Amino acid sequence: MSATTQEAAPAARVRRTRLADDRRTLDDAIADAVRQKLSFLLFFIFEQLGLPRPLIQSLIFLKLDVAGHSTLYVARTGERHFWQQPWPSAALMWATIATMIVGTLVAVYGVFMEPIGWKYAGIIWAYALAWFVFNDFLKVAVYRIMNRSHWLLGGAQSHEQTTT
């Protein structure tokens, strides 16, 4: 193996790693944009229903808590669905579950905010979880399109294929 070939291999590996990092940054940006748009949509719906502003603020708090934590599971898996291996660590699972439970209790009973009750909490959980599943399927579809067209990695293979 020539010296130029030996030097080219690490450079190609670094380039693939940087592209994979750019891809993850894009994932985070898309997830943030979607989360913000859905929060404004929910705010608009609640306003149209005539709910008081303090109650809407508590509902949005719970939505951001539940949806924000569930976004971690969608964003961490890349090209795979959130239920496929590798699974998240126990520390991540317990931390997100605990904070979603605490956030739900805070919103339901109105700790430093307007209480929303269990009915509204259930509606918010259903809304957030439905979008969580939808976003996961959308993410996998977009990754498949990007990999098929070699769009984001500039013709390189997918991140999982380049790191194995």
From TrEMBL:
**Keyword Membrane part of the UniProt annotation:** yes
Q: Which SUPFAM superfamilies match?
A: Calcium ATPase, transmembrane domain M (SSF81665)
Q: Which UniProt keywords apply?
A: Membrane, Transmembrane, Transmembrane helix
- Span-the-membrane segments of this chain are 90-112, 118-138
- Can you tell which superkingdom this protein's organism belongs to? Bacteria
Gene3D superfamilies in alphabetical order? Calcium-transporting ATPase, transmembrane domain
Q: Indicate what this protein is called per its UniProt record.
A: Uncharacterized protein
What organism is the protein native to? Bremerella volcania
